[in-house]
Amino acid sequence: MARQRAFDRDAALDSALRAFWRHGYEATSVAELTQVMGIRPPSLYAAFGDKRRLFEEVVRRFRDVYGAFTARALTEEPTGRQAMERVLRETAVAYTDPAHPPGCLIITAATNCGPESAEVEELLRGFRTAAKAAFEARIRDDVSAGLLPADTDTAALAAFYAAVIQGMSTQSRDGASREHLVKVAELAMTAWPAHEVTTVR
C-alpha cells in the first residue's frame, strides 16, 4: 500500500497566509483554507487548532517574513528621518511585489469584521499600534539629537506616517504602481519638520 505523503506544515501555512492576505479574515472560509492548503478539515484543526489560531500564526509569519523590512529599517538607519524614508520607500516596493498579494495583511485583513471577530481586530490593531510606537521612538531620537525642533509633536508625526503607510496599502490593492507609491513616499517626506540651526556670533 502506498504511503501517504507527509504533511508540509510550512507550505500549508504559507498557502493560508496568501488566502487571508487576498480576501481578509472573515471572507476566507475554512473550506477555502483546506482547499488551498491541500488538507482536510481534521488536519487543519489538528495542526493549527481552529481558524482564528491559524490566523494568529499566519500574522506572525507575515510579520517575520514579509514585514521584517520595517523593523530592519528602523534599527539600521542612523537617524529617524533616514529610517522613516527607508520604511516608506521599501513599503512602496513590498506592497506592489507581484510575487504575492498587494498591500499589507496586517492593515487590511480585518477591515470589515463583525463582533464575533473582535479578537482578530484587536490582534491586528495591536501590531499597528506597536509599529506606530516604533516610528515615534525613532522620531524622538531625532529630537534628542537636536535634528528636530524640541517642540515636535512626535505622536502626531508618527501617526501621520502610519496613516500614509495604511493609505499606500489601500492604493496598492486598488492597482497603484510601484512608481506611484514611491512618489507618495517622496511627497510624505516633505512633511518632515525642518530644523533651523541658529549660530551664536
UniProtKB/TrEMBL annotation:
Residues 6-66 form the HTH tetR-type domain. PANTHER family: HTH-TYPE TRANSCRIPTIONAL REGULATOR YJDC, TRANSCRIPTIONAL REGULATORY PROTEIN. This is TetR/AcrR family transcriptional regulator. The keyword Lyase does not apply. It comes from Nonomuraea typhae. Residues 29-48 bind DNA. Coiled coil: none annotated. It comes from the Bacteria. Keywords: DNA-binding, Transcription, Transcription regulation. InterPro entries: Homeodomain-like_sf, HTH_TetR, Tet_transcr_reg_TetR-rel_C_sf, TetR_C.
